[in-house]
Amino acid sequence: MSQLHLNIGSNQDRRKNIRLALAQLQSFFNKITTSSIFESPSEGFKGNDFYNVGVNVETQKNPSEVINILHQIEDSLGRNRRLPKFSSRIIDIDLVLFDDLIDEKLNIPRKDILKYAFVLAPLFELNPEGIHPEIKVPYSSLWEDFQSNQNFDLRKYNIDKLYN
């Protein structure tokens, strides 16, 4: 079984769309664990704040199959792939980690881990003892460094906020 970390984000009807994405993930993956909700301003454009949730799952599928499933879920929820990279999103589900795989073409591990608090914070929360497969640094150290060196706006909520 491969261990994966996904990141789900939405800034349009956030609670509903993340709930729907999580429900669909249960049809495809095993042992699903979710992080807290992390709320942050939009990056690179003016838009509503995003909710992001980290998700650990297990699967026997290969990375390409996983990415196809994530795209299928996004499409079923109305994701428009013709929009610019930095724009509002109904739903965005990214494959962040796939075991210790390093694959530049598939962007695994996802470069966003080292760029954005909304990717690193849920990853660290769910995998505090984990080590970045490419740079061999623990997520705990990366998060500590990120907090001390970066200026970011990130609010954390219990996952139950999706259902209340």
Question: Quick summary of this structure?
Answer:
The chain is an alpha+beta fold and 164 residues long. It has helices at residues 14-28, 63-76, 117-126, 139-149, and strands at 2-10, 30-40, 50-59, 92-98, 155-157. The protein has one domain: Alpha-Beta Plaits (2-Layer Sandwich).
- The beta-strand count equals 5
What is the CATH class? Alpha Beta
CATH topology: Alpha-Beta Plaits
Order of helices and strands: EHEEHEHHE
Domains, number: 1
Going across the biggest sheet, name each strand in turn: 4-1-3-2-5
Distance between the termini: 33 Å
Low-confidence runs: none
Which shape, going by the Cα principal axes? globular
Main sheet: strands, sense, barrel? 5 strands, antiparallel
CATH superfamily label: 7,8-Dihydro-6-hydroxymethylpterin-pyrophosphokinase HPPK
User: What is the mean pLDDT?
Assistant: 93
Q: Helix fraction?
A: 25-40%
Architecture per CATH nomenclature, i.e. the level-2 architecture: 2-Layer Sandwich
Query: What is the number of helices?
Result: 4
Range of strand content: 15-25%
Question: How does this model look, in words?
Answer:
The protein has 164 residues and is α+β, with helices and mostly antiparallel strands. It has a single domain, classed as Alpha-Beta Plaits (2-Layer Sandwich), CATH 3.30.70. It has four helices and five strands. The protein has a five-stranded antiparallel beta sheet, sandwiched between helices. Helix 1 (14-28) crosses helix 2 and helix 3 packs antiparallel against helix 4 (139-149). The termini are far apart. The model has no long low-confidence stretch (mean pLDDT 93).
